Amino acid sequence: MGKRRAARQAAVQFHFWRDLHGDGAPERMEEFWEFCPATARVRQFAQPLIDGMIAHLPEIDDRIRKYCENYDFRRISAVDRNVLRLAIYEMLYREDIPPVVSINEAIELAKTFGGPDSGRFVNGILDRVKQDLTRPLREAAGPNSQGVE
What we know:
This protein is an all-alpha fold. 66% of the residues lie in helices and 0% in strands. It has helices at 3-20, 29-35, 40-55, 57-67, 78-93, 99-113, 118-132. Helix 4 (57-67) crosses helix 5 (78-93) and helix 6 (99-113) runs antiparallel to helix 7. The two termini are 17 Å apart.
């Protein structure tokens, strides 16, 4: 598994943990990394994802609610909800990552960790988010702002 996929997986695992414990996530990130060991290169890509998702969580969750009209937000499985959070964070706030990459990675994470319909569900929501974007879908919009290759 590549470092970016491993980093995305770690970010989803962190937020899954945080989600299930009602913001009772580890007080120190080292506690999480002890629970979910990762190389320095994986951590280097994962940490900005984790931090960015926390910083923008209200806007991200509002976006999910917007596209899940007629569906209760809390009824979305914790795996699907956190995969969506990661992908939407990347699509809206990480111009160094092409949106189609975020979508494809999210679908794979949903298929791996979610239920039988998770990949299709995540794809449907992210396709709606993609339609609202004004930046190029298949290329990074700017230089890497996170200091990662």
